[in-house]
Amino acid sequence: MPIQFRAEVLDVRKSGAYSVLSVTAAGMPELARPGHFVTVSIGGEESSMLLRRAFAIYQVKSRGVYGGTLEIVVGVEGKGSKWLSERRRHDILDIVGPLGRPFILPKERVPCVLVAGGYGSAGMFMLAEQLRDRGCRVDVVMGASVESKLFGVLEMKRASSKLIITTEDGSAGEQGRVTDVLGSVIDKSEAAVVYACGPMGMLSAVAGIAAEHRAYSQCSVEEAMACGIGVCMTCVLPVIGPDGVTRMVRSCVEGPVFRGDRVRWSDVGTIPADVFGAPVVEES
Ligand SMILES: Cc1cc2nc3c(=O)[nH]c(=O)nc-3n(C[C@H](O)[C@H](O)[C@H](O)COP(=O)(O)OP(=O)(O)OC[C@H]3O[C@@H](n4cnc5c(N)ncnc54)[C@H](O)[C@@H]3O)c2cc1C
Ligand code: FES
Predict the structure, then answer these.
(1) Do 3-99 and 112-220 share a fold?
(2) Ligand 1 lined by 118 (C-beta under 6 Å)
(3) Whose CA is nearest to atom 21 of ligand 1?
(4) Would you place residue 1 in the very low, low, confident or very high pLDDT band (cuts 50, 70, 90)?
(5) Which ligand lies nearest to the CA atom of residue 54 in the structure?
(6) How much distance in Å is there from the Cα of 227 to the middle of ligand 1?
(7) Cα 142 to ligand 1 centroid, rounded to whole Å
(8) Quick one: 139 exposed, middle or buried, by C-beta within 10 A (0-12, 13-18, 19+)?
(9) Is the pLDDT of residue 284 over 70?
(10) 61 Cα: distance to centroid of ligand 1 (angstroms)
(11) Ligand 1 atom closest to Cα of 58?
(12) Quick one: pLDDT band at residue 280, thresholds 50, 70, 90?
């Protein structure tokens, strides 16, 4: 069960294009799993920005002087994330989490590939650590448009068995996209599972490449969210169930992690006519 808590900002540091916020979070770290996210109330008590904003859980520590801490990585997109990136030590935030369904970890010691686009790496560090603790080989592919939009390169080097970097402008690593190198990384490592987090276009391509190379994929989607707790249906996307029927599924509670081969990527943002419960259009 998620909890709602008042969090004191302990530290805000810059990392490339991102701000990393470290806050108190007593009771929350014990509940957090890789792939979970939190939502943060924005703008203070008088704010007209009513909707909470979602952020992946980057790091948690359950012990220490503060009795538990949480770290999130904030890239500035609009007003809410800008406000958050401007918080300072001792500011108070209202946070709910952990939310969503986490990544499923393999029972066997199978090789895994992690793919992260931009700040999508934030939720991958805990995952890499836990996979390696289970004896899995963990190859990581991190990509971004430019070097400053990569997050946590040195840390990921330590957390992974091998790290491959791509940038679209060639400012770091290989020039190109994560999808340009993914096929050969899966083949070389003989990966059984591919975990991915990043923009929808990237996830769609990653799921396709994983399937071509006979790997099972789990993708953490970033569908726009409003309530974050399953009430408003803002975050739905078409997902094929085990019975072969497509349903509009809430990414905040049934996700954000989905099997890559189950999401109808090309229909995201629409309600396909064959989806369960879709409105029937009568011919006149
Ligand atoms: C599960 C999940 C995990 C995320 N993790 C991170 C993270 O670790 N670091 C990070 O920087 N960002 C993350 N995001 C994206 C972040 O939530 C948005 O950038 C942020 O909500 C934008 O708010 P804003 O007020 O700055 O922008 P605005 O564009 O003004 O936001 C307006 C509304 O649109 C929604 N929205 C806008 N862009 C997005 C988006 N890309 N994804 C989802 N909702 C959006 C917001 O919730 C808000 O209600 C995550 C999103 C989700 C759903
Ligand atoms: S964001 Fe409201 S149901 Fe998912």
Answers:
(1) no
(2) no
(3) 53
(4) confident
(5) 1
(6) 12
(7) 20
(8) buried
(9) no
(10) 24
(11) 8
(12) confident
Tell me the C-alpha to C-alpha distance, in Å, between residue 131 and each of 8, 31, 122, 184, 279. Answer: 31, 18, 16, 21, 43
- Answer whether CATH 1.20.1050.10 is correct for domain 112-220: no
Q: Which atom of ligand 2 is nearest to the CA of 225?
A: 1
d(CA 78, CA 85): 11
Q: Which CATH superfamily is domain 3-99 in?
A: Translation factors (2.40.30.10)
Task: Please report, in angstroms and rounded to a whole number, the separation of the first and last CA atoms in the chain.
Answer: 49
Ligand nearest to the CA of 251: 2
235 alpha carbon – ligand 2 mean position (Å): 5
The residues spanned by each domain of the chain are 3-99, 112-220, 233-278
79 vs 61, 75, 151, CA distance in Å? 29, 11, 21
Check whether 64 has a pLDDT greater than 80. Answer: no
Q: What is the pLDDT of residues 85-96, one digit of tens each?
A: 999 999 999 999
Strands 18-24 and 69-75: antiparallel
State the helix-helix crossing angle for 200-212 and 178-189, rounded to 10 degrees. Answer: 30
